[in-house]
Design brief:
Blueprint lengths: L12 E7 L3 H13 L13 E8 L5 E6 L7 E5 L3 E6 L2 E2 L5 E2 L12 E5 L4 H4 L1 E7 L6 E8 L6 E12 L11 E3 L6 E4 L28 E5 L24 E4 L7 E3 L6 E3 L4 H4 L21
């Protein structure tokens, strides 16, 4: 099964129930639902029966659902407008877990886009979000801390870890997630927007101002090392002189990716065929990258 899914443009949250035990088929079914197309997926002889059950409603543009992994059973629903809501014991809590709507610009492909809880969150009491900054639309990765109430975070506790300037309003990527294998934070960065990557950010490894050299990439950083703002994992792949944060390049807009809990393989939701070039062929197997490249036009 895969973690960290994005749910777009709906006020409802549904639970997905599978009838059957074929894990590979289950994973493919989820990806099928995310893409709403069967044209890019292999055929299987027997698909499991799938049903939906509504478990909560009343959300404003929910884009992601995350489990904190703290044993509480709570679900954290990320709303694009800047709030994170908690579903607890089957009910949506009236007070948001976090409200940073005053810090971000929201609409289109901008807003509060990602949420990730580090390993050991139950004792650490902090977490990470990704959003587009109100002043200029730049992408921000920031840490927030809990209050004395485990269901409410402190919106004034922000510690910025990374800022990436955005030349256009679209293609901001989306998800951030900790790998269950190595504990590092993976960050999906879009190519900077417009259309067809006019600045060639996705394949460009040259140093660029405003951290733009990180656009069109998946980053892998160590935000739990104690080093400020973060440390670089020593086994990150060398990208021909590119930034050491880069784990994969050539991406259009990695809105949603997930780690398989059983294997820790990473499945990326979106790519664009023209960006792959030689990068797809040069990926290192030693880094355990196993993206599911689904191309469409």
């Amino acid at each position: 099964m895969l973690d960290n899914f994005g749910y777009e443009r709906s006020e409802y949250i549904y639970a997905l129930e599978f009838v059957g035990n074929h894990e590979k088929v289950k994973s493919m079914c989820i990806i099928l639902l995310l893409f709403m197309t069967t044209s890019v997926l292999p055929a299987y002889a027997a698909w499991p029966a799938i049903s939906f059950s509504k478990i909560a409603s009343g959300f404003d543009r929910p884009v992601r659902i995350v489990n904190a992994g703290d044993g509480s059973g709570r679900l954290f629903v990320v709303e694009q407008g800047g709030m994170i809501r908690i579903i607890k014991d089957g009910s949506v809590l009236p007070v948001p877990f976090l409200d940073i709507s005053g810090r971000l610009i929201s609409g289109g492909e901008q807003g509060l886009l990602g949420l990730a809880f580090p390993p050991g969150y139950a004792t650490k009491g902090h977490f990470y979000v990704k959003y587009t900054r109100m002043s200029d639309g730049a992408t921000v990765i920031a840490r927030y801390r809990l209050t004395a109430n485990a269901d409410i975070a402190n919106p004034a506790s922000q510690e910025v870890r990374l800022v990436v300037e955005q030349p256009f309003s679209n293609h901001n990527g989306g998800n951030i997630a900790f790998s269950p294998a190595d504990g590092f934070l993976y960050v999906g960065m879009g190519d900077g927007g417009s259309a067809n990557d006019p600045n060639n950010f996705a394949q460009n490894l040259a140093p660029l101002p405003g951290n733009k050299g990180l656009l069109g990439k998946i980053l892998r950083i160590d935000v739990e090392s104690g080093s400020a703002p973060y440390a670089i994992p020593p086994d990150n792949p060398l990208m021909g002189g590119g930034r050491s944060e880069i784990w994969a390049r050539g991406l259009r807009n990695p809105w949603g990716f997930s780690f398989d809990r059983a294997t820790a393989d990473l499945y990326n939701r979106e790519c664009w065929p023209k960006y792959l070039g030689g990068d797809r062929r040069s990926k290192s197997r030693e880094s355990r990258r196993k993206e599911l490249w689904l191309a469409y036009s």
